[in-house]
Amino acid sequence: MTACALAISTGDPGGVGPEISLRVALDARASDPVVVFGDASWLSARALQLGATGAEIVRLAPDARYVLQPGQLGIVDVGVSWNEEALAHRATARGGLAQLRALDFAMTAARAGRARGLVTAPMSKAAVNLAGHDFVGHTEHLARAAGLADDAVTMMFLGPKLRVALVTTHVAIAKLPAEITHARVLRTITHLAQALVREAGAATGARPIDMVVTGLNPHAGESGLFGDEEPRVIEPAMRAARATPLFASGRVVLRGPMPAETAFRQASTGGMDGIVAMMHDQATIASKLLDWGQAVNVTWGLPFVRTSVDHGVAYDAAQSGRAEVEGMASALRLAQRLTAYAG
């Protein structure tokens, strides 16, 4: 039984998360039901200020199945009020507890099938740690909660100009070569292909999806002159990927390993549908330059769809009332496309 609503965790109450969560939920509610998790009293009051009526705001129990009528806004209270934290515009312990509760409640709903996917507003790692919880980021937290290893899931940034997946994420450069393993490269190739196929759905037509894998080293190693990760690890992983049904069917074409500078240049002009990058900054510098404010952070490999904005809590923007909603709107739209796919 598929739940109707998408779940939104509101992130740090001192940042832009609650505001952008509510605004995109209110915009979407006429066509697609959304449930927002946080301080229900604060969220309800702010929703009224933004134009919702009392009759349109529906408070739901955490363990409910989230089925709403068009025009309704669902709100789930997570048991932590945040009036003071919403005005503090900084990392606080109570704000850390509130945002972790919102994430865990929304994630639990998605895992249980009460919501059909999860959209996350930005969180403060510092605030969650102030609250006494060891938290290094959404990606790792969601993986562990689902009983998966940190590297069993893939971080992606899917934007209008660039779609890129990361083999490694937050790793010191000195440790990076040892982290480039056959299993991680193969996992990332597979996950990006799955995501691109699902997003395209039945609309792709006859043209295959074109993916490229970057090298780790300058010039993709220059035939071993600048390193051997390409022939030793990356190329065997690519051969293994090509032998899987998704690639063998011809739906996805895989190229590389290609120098990263060449791959990203080609992708920026529409020459590639997706890139598998070996490390964090290889991917994120290009993504933030080409798709700032429009790229969506996706965690692939979870038992549910999860999308997020590609920016942080933005305390300064929250304090000055300059919260921009386009990134959150992009995350919601992508979640809608990924969860509507029936292939």
The name of the CATH architecture of the largest domain is 3-Layer(aba) Sandwich
- CATH fold-type name of the largest domain: Isopropylmalate Dehydrogenase
- Share of helix, binned: 40-55%
Largest sheet: 12 strands, mixed
What's the arrangement of strands in the largest beta sheet? 3-4-2-1-5-12-11-6-7-10-8-9
Task: Classify the oligomer.
Answer: single chain
Report the count of strand segments. Answer: 12
Number of helices: 14
Please give the CATH class of the largest domain. Answer: Alpha Beta
**Mind telling me the C-alpha Rg?**
20 Å
- Count up the domains: 2
Helices and strands: which structural class? Answer: alpha/beta
What's the average pLDDT? 91
Contiguous low-pLDDT stretches (5 residues minimum) are none
Query: Ends: how far apart?
Result: 16 Å
Share in β-strands? 15-25%
Shape: globular
Order of helices and strands: EHEHEEHHEHHEEHHEHHEHEHEEHH
CATH superfamily (homologous) name of the largest domain: Isopropylmalate Dehydrogenase
